[in-house]
Amino acid sequence: MRNRIEWIDIAKGIAILAVVIGHTLGPYNGQFFGSLIFAFHMPIFFMLSGYLYHSRPARQECQRGIINLLLPYLATAVVLLVVSAIARLLPNPLLNAYFPSWRQGLIATAYGAGSAVFNPWHWQVQPIGAVWFLLSMFIALQLFNGVMLLTVRRHQRWRQAIVRGGVFAMFAILGGWLGHVAYLPWAVNAALLAQLFLYAGYLVKQTALLSRISSAWYLLFTFMWLVSAFQGYFALTVPTSPNLLISVMGGVAGSLCIIRVSDWLSHYPNARPIKWLKRYG
Fold first, then answer.
1. CA distances (Å), 81 to each of 104, 105, 185, in order?
2. What is the pLDDT of residues 101-121, one digit of tens each?
3. Looking at the predicted structure, is the pLDDT value of residue 1 above 80?
4. Per residue in 155-191, pLDDT tens?
5. 107: in domain
6. Domain containing 154: what range?
7. Considering only Cβ atoms within 10 Å of each terminal Cβ, which end of the chain, N or C, has fewer?
8. Domain assignment present for 120
9. Is 176 part of a structural domain of the chain?
10. Does 105 reside within a domain?
11. Count of domains in the chain?
12. Bridge-partner residues for 240, per DSSP?
């Protein structure tokens, strides 16, 4: 059995709680609290994945993604389809059907959108909801692993970091541009932008940043997180925000703050809330 890193489980638990809160409270009417949550709650999942990243052959990475991401997505979609079908047979309001028909449900499942779909072709696709993240993470990890494999041992370490950073920055710019043009299937837009979060997490691990920076730095990270939240709502699923550069910086900074808090909480493993966070993280 693998040894788990406690602060990572705690950070995931906090992020999951933030996802639940963020989708039930403020962001839809522009409240600051909602923007504060959305500034980090998706970026931190990608950063943690980058932190835990290990280079794998493309086929192995794909197989791993199918098992850990695509199969859970498919299982959730099947449940939604079946429950919706049952709800359509029952008299209202015993159970609300998420999908109004099998056709719309199957299209939504295949497209995997997390929010309203827009494109030049005016396709009408119902969002499937929060599980869009599983598809987007799958695409993001395949892209990230591919770039890491293609750039290994081709340059000195610092040049390699620059090349990789440049490629991931171009992906992110493309994802941001697409956020104004079309919402692609499987949230490819978000997967492109998320390359920066994956790479940030990877660099945090490779540089041992968490053990090297002082507590004073977290004042700056908190400030950057707050600036991102004050500027407005960051919708990674599209992705859009008033300023995507500020949102990316705020997403990294906010994630680092949550990681710092998680590391501190890991020193109290017997506290019931900490056990709960570790269990569900």
1. 10, 6, 19
2. 999 999 999 999 998 899 888
3. no
4. 677 888 889 999 999 999 999 999 999 999 999 999 9
5. no
6. 6-56+131-280
7. N
8. no
9. yes
10. no
11. 1
12. 235
